[in-house]
Design goal:
The chain has a 7-stranded parallel β-sheet with strand order 3-2-1-4-5-7-11, with helices on both faces. It has a two-stranded parallel sheet with strand order 6-13. Strands 8-10 form a two-stranded parallel ribbon. The longest helix is centred in the middle third of the chain and has 20 residues, at 132-151. It has helices at 15-26, 38-46, 60-69, 86-96, 132-151, 170-175, 194-206, 224-235, 252-258, 267-273, 282-290, 295-298, and strands at residues 7-11, 30-35, 50-53, 72-75, 103-109, 120-121, 155-160, 162-164, 181-183, 191-193, 213-216, 242-244, 263-264. By secondary structure, it is α/β, with parallel strands linked by helices. It has 12 helices and 13 strands. The relative contact order is 0.14. The chain has a domain at 7-161 and 194-217 and 264-277: NAD(P)-binding Rossmann-like Domain (Rossmann fold), CATH 3.40.50.
Amino acid sequence: MNPACSRLFIFGMGYCAMALARILKEDSCEIAGTCREPEQREALRQAGYAVHLFQDGSSENEVRAGLARAENVLITIPPPATGGDLVWETFQDDILHHPRLRWLGYLSTTGVYGNHDGGWVDEDSELKPTAEHHRRRWQAETRWRHAFQSHGVPVHVFRLAGVYGPGRNPLHKVIAGQARRIEKPGLVFGRVHVEDVAEVLKASMARPHPGIIYNVCDDLPAPPAEVTEFACGLLHRPLPPLVPFEQSHLSEMGRSFYLNNRRVSNRRIKEKLKVKLHYPNYKDGLRALLKSIPEELKKH
């Protein structure tokens, strides 16, 4: 097996990307990438990353130089509201003619499957996204996959379930008084711990399979209200009221999640990448995250 990475360029050094960067840095991988805010760039540079500002086509030359050095590329930037793909539109020539590119990862979402009435889906299932932001993801996926089919770009697509982890999880929502229990009978969500996302990406770099799609989720799709109840139990907090979906007054994006019901299979990451999830279900993940929360925040 080849080493996972020697040089990685990340378009969008956000939550999932930084989880990957931290574990690859321990393996002496050289990491560069982009972000949008000067304050974030400064913090990342102080942490040892070569970071460039990139938004709406700015700082192209610096980004282009960093991209040219990489042999692995990760794209986490979502499509803009107007559609399209900023990375593809700006750097397609650099990527299509990159002399050393061995792996390109594109982070998508399981939202592209749309509603399957609670049935199981895998990477070959029909895509029928209903929400506009999911349709844009599907279009971006298609563009990158076509780059593999027409030009041999080593594209790997990762469809992520709802990502949680340190600082971004139901425990923090309970502590902040923002947790909700919304009742929609039969509905389940998929989710995945950010550390498992990072491990899947690292494993794919070590075992490249250009053109492939991977679902990235844990083993246990579960009703969102059930997850909130478990988080409240860990923190010994009272449950928020159970509100029927029809009375939930969710945002348009929030409603889109509750209108799509499916169970997503993660068999391929286990069979192709030999991944063993650190947190195979939300209970394992939340129990581990509870240990990192300061005691004063647990009190109420």
